[in-house]
Each structure stands twice: as C-alpha cells, then as structure tokens.
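To: structure desk
From: M.T.
Subject: fold request, one chain
Message: Could you run this one when you get a chance? Sequence is below, nothing fancy, just the single chain.
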Amino acid sequence: MMEVNGVWIGPAVKTPKMQFQFWMKLLTDIFMSKKKYLLLMSDARNKNIEHIHSLANPEILYEGSPNLMASDKSHATIRVGYTTRWRAVMNVPKYWFELKKREQRAKNFERKRNLERALGISVEQIQ
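Reply: Done. Structure tokens follow.
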C-alpha cells in the first residue's frame, strides 16, 4: 500500500498544463512504485480534493470524524478511500479531459478580466 497524504501545488505551478505535468509525474511515480493499492485521504469538506480523488475512481472506506487524542485537533470529518495503481493509470483520459476543461476555464477568466480592464467595470455590472 502507498499513501499520498498531502500534495500542495505551489504558486509557481499556475498553468493547467504545468499542473497536468506534475500530476502525470506523480502518477508515473505511483505506478512505478509497484504498490498494489493507493490510499487517498482528505478533509471531507474539501470538494476540490474530492474531485481530484474521484478521477482515480476510489472505493470509499470511511467518512466521518477522526479518532483523536484529547488535546489533538484535526478536520471535523475525513474521507478515506483506496484505489489500485492500475485504476489510477487507466483513468488518464479523465485527467486529460480535466486539463482541457481547466484550460477553457482559464481562457474564459482571462477574457473576462481583459474585458473588465478595458471597460473599467465588472462584467456582472453589464448583465
């Protein structure tokens, strides 16, 4: 079993293409580790991480409050699931489609921001 328990992409990796390259490298490392299972854990309220995990098609093992020692603090609810390395690799087309969606969102955001700067007002004010 292999656990990837915390991945933060720094601000230097801003473009969807750079993020995709990062995730493909991580996926390659996971696959080459020859571990049969991959354990996925996250704060259950974090919908972004839930979406990323869903791309690997995991089986959810537990969702609820973590057991803590008296003075420890943690997330209110956690989600623990697992997937196989093969399932993660076989879903590469999902990762590619996600990249294309992110590129489109980034392009739309850039277009909207440029329009707002040119007009000096927000696009919501026009609508």
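Reply (cont.): Residues 47 and 53 are 10 Å apart (CA to CA). Let me know if you need anything else for the meeting.
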